[in-house]
Amino acid sequence: MRRILIIFGAALICFCARAPAREIDYKSGIEPLFKKRCYACHGPAQQLSGLRLDRRDAALKGGYSGPAIVPGDAQNSRLVELIAGTGALVMPPAGPRLTAGEIELVRSWINQGARWSDEGSTAKPDIVSRRSSSHWSFQPVRKPVLPAAGGSKWPKTPIDRFILARLAQLGVEPSPPADRRTLLRRLHLDLTGLPPSFSAMNEFLGDSSPDAVARAVDQLLASPHFGEKWARHWLDLARYADSDGYEQDQVRRDAWRYREWVIQAFNSNMPFDRFTVEQVAGDLLPGAGVEQLIATGFHRNTLTSREGGVDVDQLRAEQVADRTSTTASVWLGLTMDCARCHDHKYDPISQKDYYRFYAFFNNAVEVNHPAPLAGEMGSYLRSRPEFDKRLAAIREKCNVEKLMPGWESEVRAAIQDPEAKLEWTQVADYVRVYVDHGHEIVQKPPPQRTYGEHLALLRVFLKYPGPLASEPEGKGTEFSKGFNEFEKLMLEFPPLSEVPAMARSAAPVKTHIHLRGDFRSPGIEVEAGTPEVLPDLPEGVERDRLALARWLVSGDNPLTARVFVNRVWQELFGAGIVESSDDFGTRGDAPSNPELLDWLAAEFMDSGWNVKQLIRSIVLSTTYGQSSHARADLKERDPSNRLLARQSRLRLPAELIRDSALSVSGLLNPAIGGRSVRPPMPASVLEVAYRAKWEESQGPERYRRGLYTLLQRSVPYPQLLNFDAPSSLVTCSRRMRSITPLQSLNLLNDPVFVEASQAFAARILREQNGTDEERMKYAFELALGRRPSTDELSSLVAYVRQKQLSLTEQAAAWFATASVLLNLDEFITRE
């Protein structure tokens, strides 16, 4: 046969056959057979357990169960047993079996000597031909010709022409434009995440120039709050959180540095290709500085377990797998994790593809670089003498100079031979769990350790002295007391800030396919590479993360630009042109307007990956500016509003609901950036939280934007959770929007919203001294950006007067009224 391809996996064995020695047309006779028998792996050679039959040398060497064929002897060849189903395993395990004629074909090929067409080839075993696919997302991006406007004056931009052409196919007319108040509120919420101020609204309404909207858009794009709004979207993708996760869920003191970098990147309009390269491989850039190191914090958002007894090799494998699947999802829109244990069931992604991609991240390690913040060094140096004095007292009390070298020696011995002294093996586990790269650090000579590494090891020594505590030289030493004093000292004198980043492994790490996804069952070795259905890396480049990063944003990659512009569209219309923004594979949704998607992707790349220009082009379109009012004629033709004959009416994201209440009430602290804060947390949540310490922020800090709320994975902030914020355990490309009773209760009773209602009432009374009607109009405009109708005004005025009678206090009556306004559906909705 020209080629026979077999994949052996522990639970999945797929069969692919090719033509025998006699001439048979491949396209008409063989390829259809491959697709029918093995949809996941027809095409070029694949490998799982080390066995592959497309090459003689590899086949005769065999896999985990030995050679599958014996040339010249079909009767004793395991391959024949498998395809004939005479043993315990049958190939293929599901779907149509090979016919008797096809099985006989294989028998004949083996009996003839099992000749291969590539005998004598010197190609590397893991280098295979590239795969092809007819699926739309794997095709190159081609900029389509703009549709004709057809004499219509409705289109203002190329985007409108694509939308209008699609609507014309169904005979549907677009909606009229939204009124100016609605449009400005929409723009403010979409671009900065905050409602327009009273003065901003009046200024816009008073500007009758033709470019008033464009000028307002440019001001919003230049606002520092723009970066906050759009960073939130990206942080969902990056699965950002401020804690490790798992049982201990230790808070990550410097995780916020990555969030800060993302905010500044959006505000400075960093080109998306650079934005990509710095996050994926900033540490590998020539002359990489602190900012590039901070960017690689994207990969540090994985979960970390610090529990005793954890299998650190397994934890590392999980972290590498998370980085692999997250990168594929964020930039390629592919569910590559589905190929971790076996070939992808739907997309043309093999298990080998997965581990070739995995190899890029398998050669990276976590590092923490000292990176003091502005003004931090001076304070640190001033406090250092007192810190050293108290630390010396602790070291002397616990006899560190005499005892710790022996402790380290025992730990090193336990690392080398875990079975020798199990009690010390447990201590060695603590070193590995509680100190990042602890086993590497403890084996460094002390002069080569950083000061931070010294302190980290000292902390574990005091916390877990192990058998040393009961041995003669250590007996009587108050290790526990010393540890408590050390912890107190570190709280009073925090160390210099650091940057959680990534670095290249000191020694290359070999990557093997994991059989059934089990890191303990390595298969063949693979080289780093891209999925075969996509273009390969350029010839001659080193196959590292930097090459991957540059490949992600190369013109040859058909996915990255499409995926990103689709997610921007999703932010501005509620759904992407491809609704399954997390899946551009064969099981994902087809684009509602494929020509528009490709036009946007091509324009985005042609613009130099200019994010603000992309957003500006969309929000200045007539399509974006339409009214969001529901239309009866669309209920049957386009019930989900996929074709955009109107704008979408969207419930605000969780953080923006809180931000809007604080903004309207006047409580919002508009400071940009900084450490995470802890706004009031319901006591009932803390009562059931495991080991959670939630010290409420005081003063203006408690009124920071929701973006800055500390995200502790084991204790999600209730208001964010109630309004569908993601868990931060895995990447999230689109938030769901639910409607639950808890949301109403949250808006009524949460301490933050109670305070906001009180402050809003005080603001109304302070800033408007007129009648109840005048105050109500002012309050309504502050909250909703528009004037109340006659019925709305009369109902609200009647309500506040009734409350004044029952509560006998003006402030209390307006507090109740303010709460009503902040609980309106319209308040938490972007029209």
The profile of the biggest β sheet is: 2 strands, antiparallel
Q: How big a fraction of the residues is strand?
A: under 5%
Report the principal-axis shape. globular
> What structural class do you assign from the helix and strand content?
mainly alpha
How much helicity do the residues have? 40-55%
- Give the number of DSSP strands: 8
Number of helices: 33
The oligomeric state is single chain
Can you put this structure into words, describing what you see?
- The protein is mainly α and 831 residues long.
- 46% of the residues lie in helices and 4% in strands.
- The chain contains 33 helices and 8 strands.
- Strands 1-2 form a two-stranded antiparallel ribbon.
- A hairpin with a 4-residue loop joins strand 1 (4-8) and strand 2 (13-17).
- The N and C termini lie far apart (64 Å).
- The relative contact order is 0.11.
- The model is unreliable at 1-36, 38-50 and 118-129 (pLDDT under 50).
